Amino acid sequence: MNELTLNRIVSLAALALIALPVGIACIILGFGMGDTPCILCWQERTAMVLVSLIAIFIMRYGLKPKYIGALIITAVYGLWAGYRHSSAHILRDIGQGFGPAIFGVHTYVWVIVVFAIILLFAGVLMLLQGDKLVEKSDSSEWSLLNKITVNVFLVIIGFNIVQAFTQTGPFPYIGQSDPVRMTFDSEKTIWSTANWPTLSKLSARGAYSIEKPDFAAMTKNDATKVTANGELTALDSVTLPAEIFGLATGISYNPQSQLFAVVTSNNWVYFLNAELTEILAKVQIDAAFSAEISNLAGVTFDGETSVLVTADHKSFVRVEYDPSVKFDDTYGRFVEGTDGVRELKRSRFATVRAKYNYVANVGWDANTQEYLMVTLPDLKRNNFVVSRLSGKDYELNSEAIISIDAQAYPNITGISVADDKAYLLSHSGQQMLTMDLASNTVVAASDIAGLTNPQAMTVVNGEFAVLDATEGNNRVNFYQVQQ
Q1: Which domains does the chain have, with CATH numbers?
Q2: Closest by alpha carbon to 143, among 9, 10, 2, 7?
Q3: How much is the pTM?
């Protein structure tokens, strides 16, 4: 590739970038249709302007490594900005979006396309250079195309300066997250500093910077207690077999098969006899296979021999106890274990209100054929939500905010459904709560004495079985069911 060809290609690329996405966004969508860029739009537009400016430098001074490096860094930043902007909207229901759409695609998605093309263009341009970059001669002059590119660049930059200053304002104003329509009426324009980031908000993970629960380190909090009707009467206590490895975090019982299922935070699933004295089968879930499942949080029978096991982040696996299954036939699903367990399904539950909260429980409503989960509240996402998920297609059926008369939301580590109510085990309050399923209201509470780390519960023959978890010494305490 000779110098003249390179110059023309780069000039056309710079002209196309500044005239089409930047020019259309500013002049047509902005001045023509009244669209005002949000903060993220300004970031994306600025990155495009910088790429165009770098291309003009290449036109003027030739293709040099420092310009190539600057172009790639700026394009990667622009690509990130596009992904950052799109991530808040791209997975919404069909047709939904933010701001105007062009050919059915919203502008922040076009940003990803534009910067992907820029990077591909830069890569192809480098390949065409062969083993040596084209050097610019001292005698070369700017062509008409070069002059048109620079003048178009300056005109569009001028329009952007006017739009930025009048609609966004000078420093320290940085724009709006949800901007109003563009106007030159000073009484209607909004200059805002509300979106400056603070140190407390800075995180590489953004809204997902929620601390994972540590089931061994949960603490009691009297502010989460509900006025109690009384105290549960202790009936019996059973120590789980010493072969159970790790901290037990979930327990469930099925009266038809008379089987118990117990899970631990380090991904073991156990099936036990009705007396909790013998392990009938066990497997360790492979956390890295398919949908990532780790830090198991709960288990519930959804059939006579099948259970759903959930992780704290709502990924789940369904397994079934079947003495005829050989462990060697389950390679790829389980890391270790015995015969007698097969995997039925592995996937993830998707929620809305509970999206940014972890869970420590799962229950099964046989009447509605739904799984129930209650969120763990967090300082950043102080939600107390019950999610109901279909047992047929594993999609979200409904969500509701639980009404509770307490100073703070409790950590619910166990849930069991009985007819028109759900029993919720409050770890932080050391209580058994009764929630009316129709109104999603906690209507009663009973204190539970003598517990250290209540991690799960189930109902067994009219009694509460509460799992008091300590690694190496997991116990199940039985109590009379509250009326």
Answers
A1: 3-196 (no CATH), 222-480 (2.120.10.30)
A2: 7
A3: 0.81
